[in-house]
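Exercise 7.
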Amino acid sequence: MSNTIIRFLGDTPLRVIVKLAIFSLIAGVIMSAVGWSPRGFYLGILRFFRNLWERGFEVIWNSAEYFLLGAAVVVPIFILMRLLSFRSPRA
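Solution. The predicted structure, written as tokens, is:
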């Protein structure tokens, strides 16, 4: 079982704990210098998804508006092109 744990962790458990502690300390110093906190990071993610949810319907309406605006130009051009390329059969 010890080999399975070492294979899973990639090293001995003690060395993995030491590496994680060092990397955690470095990450904590960098995050503190930048002004980030775990709580702020979490709230930022929540705010992002809340804004996405609230503005999602706005995006749908804007897309429908763009669709209708484009259709107002594309459909008449399509009909005009079809009429101009229509050839009546010769008798």
